[in-house]
Amino acid sequence: MNNMNQNNGMQKRMLIMTLVVFVFFIAYEFLVLKPQQEARAQKAKEELSQKQNAAPDVNTVATQTLSTDVNGNPVDMSKSADALSSKAIASSQIVSVIKTAKNVIEIDTLGRVAQVTLLEKKYKDENTNQIKLLESNQLRPLEVRFADANLNTEAFKVNVIASSSNVDATTQVQELILTQNLTNSILTKKFTIYPDGHYDLTVSTTNDKQFFISNGFRPNVLADMYAVHGFISKLNDNTLKTIEDGDLDKNENIVGAKFISNFDRYYATVIYNFEKSLNVTVMPDSSSNPQGFIHGGNSISFSGYIGPKNHRDLEALNPELIDVIDYGWFTFIAKPMFLLLQFIQGYIGNWGWTIVILTILIKLVLYPLSYKGMVSMQKLKDLAPKMKEIQARYKDDKQKQSMHMMELYKKHGANPMGGCLPLILQIPVFFAIYRVLLNAIELKGAPWILWVHDLAEMDPYFVLPILMGATMYLQQKITPNTMQDEMQKKIFQFLPVVFTFFFLWFPAGLTLYWFINNLFTIGQQYYINKVFERKRAEKA
């Protein structure tokens, strides 16, 4: 440091940087990523160039407004707003309806999964209808494309024949066979369907016809700016490869994949084989979104799952499938944190109180760091008059000013960086818990108390965001502040308003965490303030 302002300013800049990181992290997603996503959505969504290993896109033509209910029964929608739904499937397109204990899977005339409807009570949309996962005009799971262009063109015109139009797998394992009779080959799909909603599948062709099969476009229930959505695969070396929507500009080949998945915040379409790895080509659609195609040769077997990214459900299928849940940069912290959250919930039974207890535990673990930072801030506050005195005395000699400032810090055991470094070290933990609570489908439909009936949704009355903002303001008021610059002070005073605004639309579970975190920080700061007041009184 060359002068007193630099010595004093370093601490200020580090604190500003720390808070700006939080604001930027949220504001960038809200103000930059969202407009970009909306702009991409305006692009024309037609025609990818034909490639040797992929068929041309085939537009689905639905000429009826007759859809199906969760049991696959026809429903006249001509007078319903749902007739215009992007997830409505004409009954004439469906050749088989599979019902399991957890979902209804509709198979279309080309042997693809046209729709998956979740049956558990907590999975309801804003209109209280059971959630449907797939868009009717997107790439559908289990779509087959032939390497032979002529055969591929024919395959999109010939309907499959199903061994059964209705399959009841609610209580026991069932089988379904789809057959597509083409000029130079017969395509066969043999399903084994389980009550929990997942399936095993063997796909084969005659006459050695090579094909590719897709896990389809991601579910489109909640693909917002706050969470990652796109494609993820796990390779044989246990590394993960993620491609976000809008980021793929050319084909990418993946050799040796254990699973591939396309996902939004809460739901995923997954194909996996942990015995024989998959070779995959990921192709961009017209909006640069990733589409996975598995190289099937002339025969391939794998398992599949389309549904919520529920930790216990995925782990029950295979422990490695929990990697389908993407927590971003801080996954190494987020994973054990979620396991702790789940463990506590097993005893408490209420996800809201579980979040409260987890927050308290995190505050206790990080208390030594927080304590050091708070003590350092108090020392700097006490030294502020002497720092001003040195600044005035040596205003024309910056070298002496800097030297005396360093002597002052050393004499009183103060560190201009001491207030910020502990906070910076806690940032990965804050972001990890942010990702955990943002991505946890387990919070869907989970109540806390009184007005909070769903921790995965925003607080309907904005009580928690307002409380969060109020506690942030109170925390700011009782925290020592050595800033001399008026502009910096005004920026800091405005931060609670900014955070309150962003948190209005955040899931209640995440806002609850931040509110409880603020409460305990206030308690810790109040205790430190009292300790220093007693020390000052003793010296007086």
Structure, described:
The chain is α+β, with helices and mostly antiparallel strands. The protein contains 11 helices and 19 strands. The protein has helices at residues 4-41, 149-155, 311-317, 331-348, 351-365, 367-393, 398-412, 421-439, 463-478, 486-503, 508-539, and strands at 66-68, 74-76, 94-100, 103-108, 113-118, 144-146, 161-162, 166-169, 174-181, 186-193, 199-205, 211-214, 230-235, 240-244, 252-263, 267-272, 278-284, 290-297, 299-308. A hairpin with a 4-residue loop joins strand 4 (103-108) and strand 5. It is elongated and about 95 Å long. Mean pLDDT is 78; it is low at 1-11 and 41-84.
- How many distinct helices? 11
How confident is the prediction overall: mean pLDDT? 78
Number of strands: 19
Classify the secondary structure makeup into a structural class: alpha+beta
